[in-house]
Each structure stands twice: as C-alpha cells, then as structure tokens.
Write a structure and sequence with these properties.
Layout: E1 8-11, H1 16-27, E2 33-37, E3 53-57, H2 63-70, E4 75-78, H3 90-111, E5 115-119, H4 148-165, E6 170-175, E7 177-179, H5 189-196, E8 201-202, E9 206-211, H6 212-224, E10 230-234, E11 237-240, H7 241-252, E12 259-260, H8 263-280, H9 288-294, H10 303-309, H11 316-329
Parallel strand pairs: 1-2, 1-4, 2-3, 4-5, 5-6, 6-10, 7-9, 8-12
Antiparallel strand pairs: 9-11
C-alpha cells in the first residue's frame, strides 16, 4: 500500500474528473497533494478541501512549470485535457492533449517519477465497425468516425508509450462517457440540464457510460497497485442514448425526448451551432463530428479492468437517479455526488 505522505501531483485538479479525484485522495488520507490549475479555474466544488491541496498555477504548455513541480513528485496523475468536437479547435486540441502530454512525459522521464497515470478516453480506441465489442487491443485506424478529438487523444497516448519505452512506469485509462453531478452547464452534466429544459430529440446511437466516482476510484487503484505498461477501458456498460435520456427524464419528472432526430436535421443543427460559435466564441453544443458518432452503435469491453482489479462499478441507473436528484435540489448550483463509504478503502 502506498504511504499516505506520498507526493502526488494532479493535472486538471479543478476539472470535472479532477474535482472528484482530489476529494477521494483526501478522504483516503493522502496529505501531500499538489494540483495544477489555471488562474481563472472554478473552485466552488473544492472549497471544502482547497486548503489541503498545494496549488500551482499554470497549464500544460508551460513545460518549465511542469518540469519544476514534477521534480519532487512520486506519482503524477495526468487528468487534464480538452474535450471538443469542433474541428476549428484542432490546433488547441493537439496543443493540450498531445503536446501537453508530451511535456508531462518528458518531465517524468527526466525526474524518474515512480508512476504516471494517464487519463485518456474511449475516443482513442479505434472504431472498428466489424467488431461487436471494442477492447484495448483494437488496432488504430482512422475512419470517418475518427474525430479530431480522438486523434489528439490517440497521439497523446503515443507519448505515454514513448515514455514507457524509455523506462517510465505508466498506465493508461480510457473512460467512456463519464456521468455525474458537477457544474451543470459543463461536460456531460449538460445532458441533464438539456433534458430538464425539454429536449425533444434523441439520436439512435449507442456507446459506453461510467460513473465519475468509478473513474477516480480506478485511478486510485492503479496508483496504489502495480499494473504498469497497460491500458484499461473504464466502462460500466453500453447504452443507447435514447435509454439514457429516458432515465434522466423519468428521474427529473419531465417528458423524455420522444423523436428520433433525422440525420439531416441533426446535421443542420450542428452547422447552425458551428456558425453561432464563430460569432459568439462559445464552444458549440453539437458539431458535425459529434453527430456522426451519435448515429452509430459502438460498444466497449471493460472485462480487462474488471478482471484485473476486481472493482465493481456503480450501475448507471443509480448514477442517473442520484445526479437527477441533486439537480432538482441544488437550485441549479454546482453539486457533487457522495462517495460510497467503501470507496475510501479497498
């Protein structure tokens, strides 16, 4: 078991995933935690533990800051990243998800960091239409379903594999769509507010979903145990978007989306959102790239992580129920799901 005074550095500490991760680390007794954040990062959801974290202002492009702070760290958890399906943000996606990861890897190699946990995405798992279940061993191939985001995350993983080849102890985790409470207008939390606001249409596709608490528990498991040089899909199960939206609507006591959006309509909405983004500078809700994948069935096999770790995942039905309840009772203010008590130990 890892010592509770182990020096742990977390990138993306104020993000959706990072917020839950810092809470879990603190609750498990770790007290030498450093986190990277931007000067304007939201911290409302970490006010209760903010004073127990050493904060470093900067971003992934600041290689000197990364080099300096990683020098004295035993473990680095690289949870920062940019999620966008807007092709106009290609340069930014590669700068953050690929070049930023390279900067982390280089600092870890130079300082001989004991362990690096890299949070990737199922987007970096190649979408092979011939396979009913996609796993960690699917050979990477680009296709019309490969988004710019997916490419940037895949190339970020290549930086991790380069580090491993140079002697770095690293593990890659590929979460599916992460559900949970947080800042309601950001990340997948927006799915709940969209349904609450009267979403009328759904898309017919299928993909993987996982509770945010299970993702961070998996991170801590692989931090505390030696499974280096591997990648693991983190996924509770695979669901149709229609089913997810219906469950959200039922728990929010609103009408579920009842119409399957014709692809031409979804594409028209995507083009409108992309045009609006050019004017407002606000990231579009949907894009042509995201629509393309929302009409396909891609299922992900998480048997490797479940067989390796013996971790059991929270059913997505429970995640949706708890998250919807928080949305109804929080007056739209940001909120966090409570961890089950047994998540504080293994």
């Amino acid at each position: 078991m890892m010592e509770k005074n182990a020096a742990i550095f977390v990138t993306g500490g104020t993000g959706f995933l990072g917020t839950y991760l810092l809470h879990l680390l603190v609750h498990r007794g770790y007290h030498n935690i450093t986190a990277l954040c931007r000067a304007n990062s939201q911290r409302e959801l970490i006010k209760d533990i903010e004073g127990q974290i050493q904060w470093v202002e900067g971003d992934l492009s600041d290689h000197q800051t990364l080099y300096d702070v990683i020098e004295n760290q035993q473990v680095v958890i690289h949870a920062a990243g940019l999620v966008s399906f807007n092709p106009r943000e290609e340069h930014k996606l590669y700068k953050v998800n690929t070049d930023g990861t390279a900067n982390v890897v280089n600092a870890c190699i130079n300082h001989q960091t004991e362990k690096l946990i890299h949070i990737s995405s199922i987007a970096a798992i190649s979408k092979d239409e011939k396979l009913s279940l996609l796993n960690e061993d699917v050979e990477w191939q680009e296709s019309k379903y490969t988004s710019i985001y997916a490419k940037s995350k895949f190339h970020g993983e290549l930086e991790i594999w380069r580090g491993i080849a140079e002697g770095l102890n690293a593990t890659i985790l590929n979460p599916s769509i992460i559900l949970g409470a947080g800042y309601w207008e950001q990340t997948s939390c927006k799915m709940f507010t969209e349904v609450y606001g009267g979403l009328k249409f759904y898309t017919p596709g299928k993909t993987g979903f996982v509770d945010v608490r299970d993702v961070v528990r998996s991170i801590v498991y692989f931090m505390e145990n030696d499974h280096n040089g591997q990648r693991y899909i983190i996924n509770e199960d695979n669901y149709f978007f229609k089913d997810i939206f219906e469950q959200i609507a039922n728990h929010l006591e609103v009408k579920p989306p009842s119409k399957c959006a014709p692809k031409w309509l979804a594409s028209t909405i995507a083009k409108f959102e992309e045009t609006k983004a050019l004017i407002t500078g606000i990231r579009p809700i949907v894009t042509t790239e995201s629509i393309r994948n929302a009409y396909k069935d891609f299922s992900y096999d998480a048997s490797k992580v479940k067989n390796t770790s013996n971790l059991s995942f929270i059913p997505i039905a429970q995640t949706i129920e708890e998250t919807a309840q928080l949305l109804k009772t929080s007056s739209n203010g940001p909120a966090l799901l409570a961890f089950p008590e047994d998540y504080y130990k293994y």
